[in-house]
Amino acid sequence: MFAAVLLIALIGALAYYRAPVLAWTVVLAAWFAALQFAFGCPVSVAVWSVAAVFAAVLNILPLRRAVFTGPVFGIFKKITPAMSQTEQEAINAGTVWWDRDLFSGKPDYQRLLSFPDAKLNAEEQAFLDGPTEQLCSMIDDWKITHELKDLPPEVWQFIKDNGFLGMIVKKKYGGLEFSNYAHAKVVTKIATRGGTAAVSVMVPNSLGPGELLQHYGTEAQKDYYLPRLAKGVEVPCFALTSPYAGSDAGSIPDYGIVCRGSYTDPRSGEHHENVLGLRVSWEKRWITLAPVATILGLAFKMYDPDHLLGDKEEIGITCALVPTEHEGVCIGRRHFPGGAAFMNGPTWGKDVFIPLEWIIGGREFAGQGWRMLVECLSVGRCISLPAMSVACGKVTTFTTGAYARIRDQFGLPIGKFEGVDEAMARIGGYTYQMEASQDLALTGLDMGEKPSVLSAVLKYHNTERMRKTINDAMDIHGGKAVVLGPRNYLARAYQSIPIGITVEGANILTRSMIIYGQGAIRCHPFVLREMKAAMANDGAEFDRAITGHINFVISNIFRSLWLGLTGARFAGAPRGGETARYYKQITRFSSAFALLSDMAMFSLGGSLKFREKLSARLGDMLSNLYIATACLKRFEREGAQKEDLAVLRWAVENALFDLQAAMDGFLANLPSRGLAVVLRKIIFPWGLTLKPASDRIGTKVARAMMEPGGMRERLTRGMYVPPSEEDAVGVLQHALTAILATEPVEQKLRKLARDGKFQAITAKERLEEALRAGLVTQAEFDAVARARKLKRDVIMVDDFDMALERHDDALLQRHIF
């Protein structure tokens, strides 16, 4: 019995610590020897012989390849699903970073905590405090969305004059050359004031001509366009999506045929004859800034049927820059997306001749467009929509926290009702998750990474959390949020939610295909190596990869079982105290996720990519591992503030609970039922033990959102808060401060009323009676009167004339009670 227990312990230790094959051989041989000589238990020659054969096969490379990995290699090449060129380019795009650790089953937390903290330099901070603050003060979102349906001319000019369109452009070309972190924080701050301005600023700095030019443009293209883009002389748009190719952007029907032709350059007015170029036809839709763009980035499929460039007829997707004044370019109409007012519209053209030199990067980059796009997309998807989601979280946290404390019903602030505080906790918790997740990814970007998998995680999960926070905020505000008008600071964001869900990869597609579809291959320690070895017919590399992969699987089986049995109590953690258990649980579920991922690929093979529901759940596992670690990183970065423990606990515990639910759903639906039963026993030996954050924790988050303090300040930091009491958002802070300050006086007045001390009926008359009777001082009277006025200002909604044209600016004066 002792020998058996010792053997199991040895195997478990070897697997847990991922010992190499040679270590397995030496340790097990030593065990056999100990069994024979120390315990008097003879081992037959036959057993030694079999063990020696296995040891030889495992450790002698030529023998292992001949007997084991060679035959497996042959099978692997046959069953590996073929990948299209666009799939290969998408998988090869970008880099892997912290997501690889999460796929490893053994996240290196010291590495996580050693990542540099994202910071603004002095110039970036000055830009946020100066031009960005000033721009926000110029934005009247109601006027923009309801009256003008556009930014006012002076706002457009301010954006151009102050370099907002050139944040990513290098200084040598006249741009600001901000860090990715600064870029995101500028977009976030603007978005807290108005989505139209934020989109107008973020698009030229995201995936588009500026980004593509800096990475792939010719020197002549950079020298001409980048200074003009940086100063707003040129307004760019990028046309990729067509009516027939939305999420499947790689199948765009737009095309360009290589030929000779003539054209007049609208920039110089010069006419050129018999030029080698392209005759391009396109029809694009949903192109942001297209109606006002002066330069059109255009993606199309390029063909050379007459072999004017070479032997290849189908060149591939190509990107070109076309001045919108060029003959044949049709542009200038607009869509009206979700009630938002940012410029978005169609563009089309038929047989428009352009020279080859208008291809981004020149003739050398013909056919390289898809690779260029997917490589740059990982940067933009980490910044633009995630930043707008963070902005939405900050606004809903700031406004809902204040409104729930100011607005009362049944004698209590509505935020103190448990149904409301449950929704408020979601707002605060999701806001914490969103900013933590983006800030960690921005750290990677500024370290030179292009995390394509994490960009998909951010795009999906931040926009979904944005949707949840705005829905909860709308519910809590009730009629205040239903009635449109200048006082409604939520409804336009609520109307616009489907835009963020749809663009830059529709959320359904992103969750069910992209996150895990890319992650399984890019982040797995061995799968991409095996696939590349198969494509290159490299048996030696395949041998190294497959033996490592087998060891990886065996390790994760034992690690998952041990961590599940012990509740990960003995796993390592880089910090003690309150957060230690979270690191340990993440280690446990990282191992379990790696095991489930391998078993999914093993049992389903190439069909896994068509099992979108299973792939989505695997993606949810990876995403929630990332979100939980990002929250822990944020907590450390912000000084491990005790005030923030409640929101940290809510954020991490709910992320881990969602992760557990994804694993449960995956196992419940895995087609191989026998395998599913075994995996469930390994991963959940005691059942589903994790719970979401408790009601008590949620109440702590909600109460902190309603009171001035460190947690509320950190959740809303970087938001633009108008100083004026006349502003619908600005008045909230003034009203909250005033109501908290006068609460003792209001309590005294309520007690006097209960004791029958007043003859008056209305609250206003009772306050006046209390002053006359000397029950309150003049200072208390003035403070309460002001607080009540501010409260009325907060809770009032707008009304208009019957034509919905003229707004009543004097509604506060209609004060009957």
Automatic annotation (TrEMBL):
Record EC number: 1.3.8.7, 1.3.8.8
GO MF annotations, alphabetized: flavin adenine dinucleotide binding; long-chain fatty acyl-CoA dehydrogenase activity; medium-chain fatty acyl-CoA dehydrogenase activity
Cofactor(s) the protein needs: FAD
Pfam families assigned to the protein according to its UniProt record, in alphabetical order: ACDH_C, Acyl-CoA_dh_1, Acyl-CoA_dh_N
Major enzyme class: oxidoreductase
UniProt domain Acyl-CoA dehydrogenase C-terminal bacterial-type: residue ranges: 521-800
Listed GO CC annotations: cytoplasm
Protein's pathway: Lipid metabolism; fatty acid beta-oxidation
GO biological process annotation, one example: fatty acid beta-oxidation using acyl-CoA dehydrogenase
Domain Acyl-CoA dehydrogenase/oxidase C-terminal stretches: 367-514
Transmembrane segments: 33-58
Entry keyword Flavoprotein: yes
Segments forming domain Acyl-CoA dehydrogenase/oxidase N-terminal: 139-232
Reaction(s) catalysed (UniProt annotation): a long-chain 2,3-saturated fatty acyl-CoA + oxidized [electron-transfer flavoprotein] + H(+) = a long-chain (2E)-enoyl-CoA + reduced [electron-transfer flavoprotein]; a medium-chain 2,3-saturated fatty acyl-CoA + oxidized [electron-transfer flavoprotein] + H(+) = a medium-chain (2E)-enoyl-CoA + reduced [electron-transfer flavoprotein]
InterPro entries in the record: Acyl-CoA_dehydrogenase, Acyl-CoA_Oxase/DH_mid-dom_sf, AcylCo_DH-like_C, AcylCo_DH/oxidase_C, AcylCoA_DH/ox_N, AcylCoA_DH/ox_N_sf, AcylCoA_DH/oxidase_NM_dom_sf, FadE_C
UniProt keyword terms in alphabetical order: FAD, Flavoprotein, Membrane, Oxidoreductase, Transmembrane, Transmembrane helix
Recorded family membership: Belongs to the acyl-CoA dehydrogenase family.
The protein, known as: Acyl-coenzyme A dehydrogenase
